[in-house]
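Hello, quick one for you while I still have it in my head. A protein chain has come my way and I'm curious about its shape. Can you walk me through what the tokens say about the fold? No rush at all, and the record is pasted right below.
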Amino acid sequence: MKKRRVFCRILPCSRLTFPLLLNAWEKDGIDSAFDIMVIEPAADLKKIGNGDVVLYSLMTPDLPLVQAEIHRLKKAGARVVGGGPHITGDQELPAQIGFDVLFAGAAERTFATFGHDLLAGRVEPIYRDNGETGRDDFNACLPISRHIPTRPPLEIARGCSWKCAYCETNRFPVQYRALDSIRAYLEIQAREKCTRVNFISPSALEYGALKTGDIHLDGIEEILALARDFGFRFIEYGIFPSEIRPDTLSAPALEMLKRYVANKSITIGAQSGADGRLKELGRGHTSADIEQAVDLANGSGFLVNLDFIIGYPDETAEEREITYRFILRMKKAYRIKAHLHYFFPLAGSRYAFRFPAFLSPGERETWLALMKNGTAFGGWESNEKQVISYFQWLERKFPTYYARYS
């Protein structure tokens, strides 16, 4: 009997997603029932035909591209399945775009259920995981699949106790991967001669925390020591995708990192240099906390990449000027680089239906100058163009949904 073909559509943001999902099928023993393929260039979509299943994991900025692809795929008779951050926070727009099946929340458990349903011919329109169920699946599944060679960093913490306005990570209960599961991942990576290992945690130094600001360095050190015992040459922690909150950094934490990590820099989530904006965001720290963290990190020998977002909803030119001056002062006094992002409203966040505050031409040149002189880096300019394009698409294609933004 001919196997049903399942295509994993790789987008830039989803390159790390599918190894974990397919691992859930492999653990369940049903992956062999399908002909699983990876598809990356959009031109290869022509390979997909009637009865095929196409999997997407997407973020909000991907929606215009994906809508155009779905139209083409549905004409070919394919079934289109979507999950990822946007669909977790909002199922309304993806349903309008044309997805046949949606996944909201973590998908290890529900993706296995979907596989069995697909074989039985009784697929549901939506599969949900609210974070309370499937905790064992978080430990059981690893981002390693025989169907995809990509080896993502290991997610060791899921969810967040903080309530930052621009982020949806806090919508679900915090979970931590158990040490036995981490050991299993490291053992496989070491056996396959991998030399580098990295970890995913929304707040690097709060692994194992029972509440915000609850620091347990012993648990983190146990993970890093285990990685060193397995012989990895490059152990990375405290950089993307496991940045550090400024109010969690301490001299003991830095001493621990120096003992284990290969990275010579760390990433600190600053997000703004204006205290009023930090308070409005719900960040739980001040600009003084950022400076203190940078001072400690530089004193321990680490260069610091400071993450900032500009263009928040209702953000004034004066607020941006405060952040700009803060960056200049920090650059003069410390070894830092500013990593600049432009605000994009993300589904499921408090700012989900808010417009960015757009920059004037003069402001844009001021911020671009930071890039040109080496003070800052990042894709904020392309992010700005992307968000403008997104709203133009949304207003044109889905005016009723667009009308919800303010």
Observations:
- The CA atoms of residues 246 and 293 lie 5 Å apart.
- DSSP finds 15 helices and 16 strands in the chain.
